[in-house]
């Protein structure tokens, strides 16, 4: 596959972090409208190029996960916040993110995926599943119980699995199970952190793909637990 010129030059520059810092300090619609060209130039366009160039690379981890560079309805999250049920009425997110979900993704259906979030001092990337619906979460827990050797492979990968957990064992599961702490999980994902300088390097896309590859044992387990192709 030919190397994109954006890959040679790097996708993200300091302008991305400067814009997001300024947005945090001036999080209102008038300021954003006056600085929309900066947003498109320094944030949106670089992220869409990154997603487009990631398409072939992510296939080296698994061909089942989608990098969609469409401006609307693709992998990139909207910059606008949903403030309907939040006390914080700030209209914009102060970071930019993208989700590379399994090809089986449908509305209201939980699937595993890979994730990238860029924010000043808080750049992370990795994979897993976040807030799966109750049926999907039960299927994941049941696979841990029914296929403990498969889950041992995930644990041997020495991934730091993150997310929310129940304080007590979930109903219907043995509280003395050797993997009870994992059965208590409501999220299962693992992420790597990157400095702002690393994000701006020409080879950042390679480092992100490596971060995704490190989470592959976890994401593969989740994929199979939900009856999807890895």
Contiguous low-pLDDT stretches (5 residues minimum) are none
Q: What count of domains describes the coordinates? A: 1
Helix content: 40-55%
CA(first)-CA(last) distance: 22 Å
- DSSP strand content: 5-15%
Order of helices and strands: HHHHEEEHHHEHHH
- The neighbouring-strand order within the major sheet is 1-2-3-4
Q: Give the strand tally.
A: 4
The main pleated sheet reads as: 4 strands, antiparallel
Structural class comes to alpha+beta
Rounded Rg: 19 Å
Global morphology: globular
Describe the model.
Helix 4 (36-58) packs across helix 9 (204-214). A four-stranded antiparallel beta sheet has the order 1-2-3-4. With 230 residues, it is of the alpha+beta class. It has helices spanning 5-9, 14-25, 29-34, 36-58, 134-146, 148-156, 180-183, 196-199, 204-214, 216-225, and strands spanning 96-101, 113-118, 123-129, 188-194. The chain has one domain (10-77, 91-225). The two termini are 22 Å apart. The protein contains ten helices and four strands.
Descriptive tags:
230 residues, alpha+beta, 4-stranded antiparallel β-sheet, 10 helices, 42% helix, 11% strand, globular
Give me a quick take on this structure:
The chain is built from 10 helices and 4 strands; from the N terminus they run H-H-H-H-E-E-E-H-H-H-E-H-H-H.
Sequence-ordered SSE layout with sheet pairings:
Blueprint: H1 5-9, H2 14-25, H3 29-34, H4 36-58, E1 96-101, E2 113-118, E3 123-129, H5 134-146, H6 148-156, H7 180-183, E4 188-194, H8 196-199, H9 204-214, H10 216-225
Helix pairs in contact: 2-4, 4-9, 5-6
